[in-house]
Amino acid sequence: MFTGLVSEVGQLVSVKGRDGLRRLRVACKYPARALAVGASIALDGICLTVVAKGKKGKGSWFEVETGAETLARTTAGRWAVGKKLNLERAVRLGDELGGHIVTGHIDGVARILACEDLGDMARLTLVAPAGLARFIAVKGAVALDGISLTVNEVAGAEFTVFIIPHTLAATHWNALKPGDEVNLEVDLVARYLARLAEAR
């Protein structure tokens, strides 16, 4: 489980394997001792498992494996060497839950329609896949590329979020532009409420 509070921005330094299974190596500033083989880590919101790690200068590197489902359902299938990635280690018992409950199980890919520069903030308008729009509500939560955000407006499949200065500085989102795609995880509570309603 995660909170949607990005704690590091890593960089993809190696991609190996085929379409059905890829092994990714990421360099970051986490100390190597803070990463454990077998631990969960979120890369742009995708929950993956650390399968190898090591020291790299003052930071570290770690490797994860992505399967066919992840490559097809998320943006991971288009990642190339040099890509910046929002990172978050899994929540530990006793940690502050400062964002919202994020599983790292991506529901689909949202596309950015507009980026409005508001000086020290930004306003993004996105469109969600049609099947996921019903889970997005005003004042509800979404995770976009692993970032916990509050929905400000909804119009059909389109929705808007505001990005505060801290988020722009702490993530790789300072270079987003219209047409970019981001990993979308809808609110867990909304998903289960919708399922209960269907069961009735």
If you had to describe this structure to a student in words, what would you say it looks like?
- The protein is built from 3 helices and 12 strands.
- By secondary structure, it is mostly beta strands.
- It has 2 domains: 8-89, Elongation Factor Tu (Ef-tu), domain 3 (Beta Barrel); 108-199, Elongation Factor Tu (Ef-tu), domain 3 (Beta Barrel), CATH 2.40.30.20.
- The strands form 2 sheets. It has a 6-stranded antiparallel β-barrel with strand order 1-2-5-4-3-6. Strands 7-8-11-10-9-12 form a 6-stranded antiparallel beta barrel.
- The chain starts with 7 loop residues before the first strand and ends with a helix.
Q: Please give the largest β-sheet.
A: 6 strands, antiparallel, barrel
Helical residues, percent: 10-25%
Corresponding CATH architecture of the largest domain: Beta Barrel
Order of helices and strands: EEEEEHEEEEEEHEH
Number of alpha- plus pi-helical segments: 3
Q: Which stretches are poorly predicted, pLDDT < 50 over at least 5 residues?
A: none
Q: Tally the beta strands.
A: 12
Terminal Cα span: 29 Å
The CATH topology name of the largest domain reads Elongation Factor Tu (Ef-tu), domain 3
Structural class: mainly beta
Average per-residue pLDDT, rounded, comes to 92
Q: What's the structural domain tally?
A: 2
